[in-house]
Design a protein that fits this description.
single chain, Nitrilase/N-carbamoyl-D-aminoacid amidohydrolase, Rossmann fold, 6-stranded mixed sheet, 18% strand
Length: 569
């Protein structure tokens, strides 16, 4: 039996478009004599639909669109489609109104539904908000074979792999007990760095544990802050990888199931990008899909001559083409000569358009307006941030005038400690590198320059980073060196370590306490930042749910510390 995985890039809520993607994949698969076609989780509506699921009309439209799709599909093919369906017993017996389901379409009809058993409620996942868990793990018969169906999280509960069971139910064990021939999984598994290695290790262990081959179909594309990498795979009974679809691209992958050996046969294995190449591919896809799905054709950003804006400009050019990117240079009296020259050299290397808008006269106008009110105070934080807010207003004005998407250029290190200006450099519709620590920004830029045609000017890579909001300013006037800062942030934000545990790894206690205080104090800024593309396990996005008005601090951090705060707010 020939089986195919349609690795699709759906648009959330665009039911007709998503149905057309499924139909086109089925028609292509039909030319290869495919008998069974898999699509990703919630492939008809796109994942994650979030509170669209609370709109009855949206659920009803899905219910009407599904049988239409069944009638349009090649009749000789069985197709599994992800869909949210109503829970008929919710009104009488209680429970959530919907199931996260897979529909089996065959012979022009909707033949069977399978419901997701395990509903994740961690990080960006909130399945329990909408869905009732399925009550049984089930299979369907196709050409004499028993094919068990699971959906995404149903795979992530193998006690042999995790060392514990995260849920009371184990769908894989239940299907294995029913002596199925093959287990398939429809997933919408968001990307994070190196996650594919984890998935493949987990699936290899599961096939060995239960003695069942597994086919895993994953969504691809960007939806808001989430990026889906695809990388759909198949493993045979021995835990060997037999096929892998392209990473970060739509794909149609086929594999043979041998009914005699009751196993998957080796097929094509697409290469998996590693390290910086993987992050680059994810971010380019995230920018490209955010723009396309939100209706933008052109991007713009502020070009400061610094490392962050250089990387964002390169990402934008790769995502939508250099001819569709506009860089705005806004030098002030405090800007160094190299800020302009470095930015122009970068723009020339990338082939993007530029416009120079000096802000010196605007700064003078603000000084005059504030002269009486500020007369008894010294130049300080307010005046520094006015410069950033002037730039932010100019950028938003251009964005409004021409309909370009403004991409903000702040990195994760700055966002974590609040070294950024509300209504200034934080302005924008997308924060492309908001989950990228500063040290990784440098690593990615150096990786970009490793080829035959380096695009990041060398001086941008070697000069000290600076906001240039006052004479001689550099970031390290306000922050620890970025290699130290990023290590502390990783331990505190991602690994949830206490101050004492971080100090035990070699950091000074005063520095650790200061950084943690900065992270806590900056929460109000993060709540007002544009959506940031998620590439790590712990991003400041939909999975970060910290309160703003909170007085809790980790033990050993003083309640009212007398520490210097970053000079941007």
């Amino acid at each position: 039996m020939k089986i195919a995985i349609a690795q699709l890039n759906p648009t959330i809520g665009n039911l007709d478009h998503n149905a057309e993607l499924i139909l086109a994949a089925a028609q292509q698969a039909a030319t290869q004599n495919v008998r069974l076609l898999l699509t990703p989780e919630l492939s008809l509506c796109g994942y994650p639909p979030r509170d669209l699921l609370m709109q009855p009309a949206f659920v009803e439209q899905m219910a009407r669109r599904l049988p239409q799709l069944a009638q349009d599909l090649p009749p000789q093919m069985a197709v599994l489609v992800g869909i949210a369906v109503s829970n008929p017993t919710a009104a009488q017996l209680g429970g959530k109104p919907l199931f996260n389901s897979t529909a089996l379409l065959q012979n022009g009809q909707v033949e069977q539904f399978f419901h997701k058993r395990l509903l994740p409620t961690y990080d960006v996942f909130d399945d329990n908000r909408y869905f009732e868990p399925g009550s049984a793990s089930e299979y369907f018969m196709l050409d004499g074979l028993r094919i068990g169906v699971t959906i995404c999280e149903d795979l992530w509960n193998d006690a042999n792999f995790w060392g514990k069971r995260n849920y009371a139910v184990d769908p894989l064990a239940e299907l294995a007990a029913q002596n199925v021939d093959l287990i398939i999984n429809l997933s919408g598994s968001p990307y994070s760095f190196a996650k594919q290695q984890l998935r493949e290790s987990m699936l290899a262990q599961a096939t060995q544990t239960y003695g069942q081959p597994i086919l895993y179909s994953n969504q691809v594309g960007g939806n808001d802050d989430l990026i889906f990498d695809g990388s759909s795979v198949g493993f045979n009974r021995q835990g060997e990888l037999v096929c892998r679809a392209q990473a970060f691209e739509s794909d149609l992958m086929t594999v043979e199931f041998d009914p005699i050996s009751r196993d998957l046969q080796p097929s094509s294995i697409a290469p998996q990008p590693q390290d910086n190449a993987e992050i680059w591919a994810a971010l380019v896809l995230g920018v490209k899909d955010y723009m396309r799905k939100c209706g933008f054709s052109k991007a713009m950003l502020g070009l400061s001559g610094g490392i962050d804006s250089a990387l964002v400009a390169a990402l934008a050019a790769a995502a939508v083409g250099a001819e569709n990117v506009l860089g705005i240079l806004m030098p002030s009296p405090y800007s160094s000569d190299h800020s302009v020259s470095d930015a122009l050299e970068l723009a020339q290397n990338l082939g993007i358009q530029t416009q120079i808008l000096p802000i010196g006269e605007l700064m003078q106008s603000y000084d005059q307006s504030f002269a009486e009110l500020f007369q008894d105070s010294e130049f300080g934080l307010a005046e520094e941030n006015i410069q950033s807010r002037i730039r932010g207003s100019l950028l938003m004005g251009i964005s409004n005038k021409f309909g370009h998407l403004l991409i903000s250029t702040g990195n994760k290190s700055e966002l974590a400690v609040g070294y950024c200006t509300l209504y200034g450099d934080m302005n924008g519709g997308l924060a492309a590198i908001a989950d990228l620590p500063k040290t990784r920004v440098y690593a990615l830029c150096r990786w970009l320059n490793a080829g035959d045609n380096p695009v990041i000017p060398e001086h941008i890579l070697t000069k000290p980073p600076s906001a240039e909001l006052k004479p001689g300013q550099v970031d390290q006037d306000s922050l620890p060196p970025y290699d130290l800062l990023d290590d502390i942030l990783c331990q505190f934000v991602t690994q949830h370590r206490s101050p004492a545990e971080i100090v035990a790894t070699g950091h000074e206690a005063a520095t650790v306490e200061r950084v943690i205080m900065l992270v806590t104090r900056a929460e109000f800024k993060r709540k007002q930042s544009p959506p940031g593309l998620k590439i790590t396990d712990r991003a400041f996005g939909t999975g970060w749910r910290m309160p703003i008005a909170s007085r809790w601090l980790p033990s050993s951090v003083p309640a009212s510390p007398k520490i210097a705060l970053p000079t941007r707010s």
